[in-house]
Design brief:
4-stranded antiparallel β-sheet, 5 helices, flat
Length: 186
């Protein structure tokens, strides 16, 4: 039978006895027999770790105690996040930076009209006719002397690995028999 967490029990001499039942009527004959030897015996309702006069008392108390919990509630009492003031200060700083950046961009875009757009710093490459090509821009390349030697193309594939690896050792039982065994030192 599984343990019960809410039940009627008999107290004799202020101490609980092993007699327990879900219904009060089940314990009454036993209670009367115990009262003959222990006149101070009493029957109580046990629920949520406490003794009550009746199950109704336990329910009423539970309804009175029950309260609404908000998002900041944590078990064990009033625990507050120690980092919250720091988080709030960082949020404020970030908001201020974003506002300043937005203001700078707005001032910069309103100060330069579209007709006075900045000219590109590089000259556009010219085509065979000497005119600047507007359809495609050719990006300038670095001379061969400035290329990095560390980024040379290395050979790949099975042939490139054969020269750098050690010679292949035979495997299998036949190769083990042909290899000499080490002698143990005394």
């Amino acid at each position: 039978m599984p343990p019960r967490f809410a039940y009627w029990t008999i107290l004799a001499g202020g101490l609980p006895t092993a007699f327990r039942a879900a219904e009060r009527d089940d314990l009454l004959p036993t209670f009367r027999r115990i009262q003959e030897k222990h006149p101070d015996a009493e029957m109580k309702w046990f629920a949520r770790g406490r003794l009550w006069a009746s199950p109704e008392d336990a329910r009423q108390q539970a309804e009175r105690v029950r309260e609404r919990r908000d998002r900041t509630w944590r078990p064990g009492g009033d625990h507050r996040d120690r980092r919250e003031p720091h988080k709030a200060a960082a949020r404020e700083r970030n908001q201020e930076r974003r506002r300043q950046r937005f203001d700078r961009k707005q001032r910069a875009s309103s100060a330069t009209p579209a007709s006075q757009a900045p000219t590109p710093k590089r000259a556009l490459p010219t085509g065979p006719s000497g005119q600047a090509s507007s359809s495609k821009r050719a990006l300038p390349t670095a001379p061969a002397s400035q290329t990095s030697t560390s980024k040379r193309a290395l050979p790949t594939g099975p042939a490139s690995h054969a020269s750098t690896s050690k010679r292949a050792l035979p495997s299998g039982p036949a190769s083990r028999a042909s290899t000499p065994k080490r002698k143990r030192r005394p």
